[in-house]
């Protein structure tokens, strides 16, 4: 009677962990990180001067471009007593004419704390369009 009854074999339990799914997940994450890592580097190193730096000595006084709180630009020449308000196009044309006469022309950008960064960058773009290479930012000494 025993011959007709099928016997069940006892199966041993495996004490191993199947790591294939974990390797698949790891490779997918690796690919995701490799693709997204270059996109996350949006910054660049900038060496900022300390506030205790001394002003550079120069034989000539710089031209000062002021950015007012309403976004208006003004130009103060070294021999002028007061700055003159002007449009960006006029300022660019005047700076370009000055730069064509003097290649070592220095321009200082001055702005109040309340002026937005966007307006200061717009002023820097006007100066760059005039092909002036020596540009600085005015600050108060501490």
TrEMBL record:
HAMAP family: TolR. Belongs to the ExbD/TolR family. It is a single-pass membrane protein. InterPro entries: ExbD (IPR003400), Tol-Pal_TolR (IPR014168). NCBIfam families: tolR. It comes from Stenotrophomonas mori. PANTHER family: EXBD MEMBRANE COMPONENT OF PMF-DRIVEN MACROMOLECULE IMPORT SYSTEM (PTHR30558), TOL-PAL SYSTEM PROTEIN TOLR (PTHR30558:SF7). The lineage of its organism: Bacteria, Pseudomonadati, Pseudomonadota, Gammaproteobacteria, Lysobacterales. The chain crosses the membrane at residues 21-44. This is Tol-Pal system protein TolR. The Tol-Pal system is composed of five core proteins: the inner membrane proteins TolA, TolQ and TolR, the periplasmic protein TolB and the outer membrane protein Pal. They form a network linking the inner and outer membranes and the peptidoglycan layer.
């Amino acid at each position: 009677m025993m011959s007709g009854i099928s016997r069940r074999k006892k199966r041993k339990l495996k004490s191993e962990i199947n790591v294939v799914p974990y390797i698949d997940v790891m490779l997918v994450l690796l690919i995701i990180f490799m693709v997204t890592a270059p996109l996350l580097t949006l910054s660049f190193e900038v060496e900022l001067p300390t506030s205790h730096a001394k002003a550079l000595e120069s034989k000539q006084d710089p031209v000062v471009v002021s950015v007012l709180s309403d976004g208006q630009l003004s130009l103060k020449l070294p021999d002028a007593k007061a700055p003159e308000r002007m449009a960006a196009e006029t300022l660019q044309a005047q700076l370009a004419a000055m730069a064509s006469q003097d290649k070592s022309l220095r321009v200082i950008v001055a702005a109040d704390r309340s002026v937005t960064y966007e307006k200061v960058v717009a002023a820097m773009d006007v100066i760059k369009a005039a092909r002036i290479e020596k540009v600085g930012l005015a600050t108060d000494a501490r």
